[in-house]
From TrEMBL:
Localization per Swiss-Prot or TrEMBL: Nucleus
Stored Pfam families: Hus1
Protein's UniProt keywords contain Nucleus: yes
Identification of the protein by name: Checkpoint protein
Matches recorded under PANTHER family: CHECKPOINT PROTEIN, MITOTIC AND DNA DAMAGE CHECKPOINT PROTEIN HUS1
Amino acid sequence: MKFKAFLTENGVSLLEKRFLPAFDKMGKHCHLLLTKEHLFFLHNLLNGDGVQCIAQFRKDVLFDDYRISSQNEDRIAFSLDIALLYRAVKSSVSICTEFSGGLASNRLQIKLVKKLPPNCTQPMPFLTFETKGYKSAVIQDVPISKPLSRSQVIELQTALDSAQDLPPTLVQVQDPNQLQNFVDHMRHVGDVLNVTISKHGDLQVQISTTLIRLGTEFQRLSVIGEKSQAPVEDRNLSAQARSERAIARGDAQSVQVSVKHFSKSLQCHLTKPDSAFYGIAPQGACLTVIFQFLVPGTRQTDKSISLHCRLPVLDPGSN
């Protein structure tokens, strides 16, 4: 089992400034899955509780001279402490810059190794970062779990494949910060968020208690997938009445999610997406958020990077 590569300047920037800060906010641990063509960050994928978050990178977005081999179809997976990885990358970038006199041109190598830590009798696996200067080299080791077995990798891959299913209707929010502002202001009002998405391009987010009901609505959003025209007679109705009628017609779905989970999913804005798509899985199985990244200077989706979250829904009878 071998893995070795050099991080590109763009790869370092993506990890250090965008994706690792976001995953650091999501939780303490995550899985890394390395394949012949991609690297995945998988948060909470094998756990039905809490927010699941999946980031996928094509190898050439992050790496040069990418080499991987294993007896499991050249797939390697392990878990690690994301904060330790983030710290190692930041530190390595700082050392790279220092070695090169302010220009981060030194190559940063990343590889899997086994080492014998102090006071241990068994070698342990590490993800190692090596920065070479003119006269010296700095090595930083990030401890990782024992690499997953063949059956565990298959389990992880199966969970990943099922998590890629798209909701039938997705609505596009161009400025996700508006949702962030709403949740920041309302998180102390209640613990449960009602989210309604219609085929007309409406997204309603509402917090309600026995004493108060507060919400925000986005109308006429771009729709991907199943869509329909809103009836003319619904135009002058309240948001609540319109959503109830749309649900009754089968033109909308509504789910309840934890405010805490929704707020955590918004941490993905640290990755600087260009927009976000919201959708509800069939039978209201989960709330899915897909973040869109554009090729710089264009309106084309950057297909080399993907990021999405899946939020578990609450049982309406449990509130």
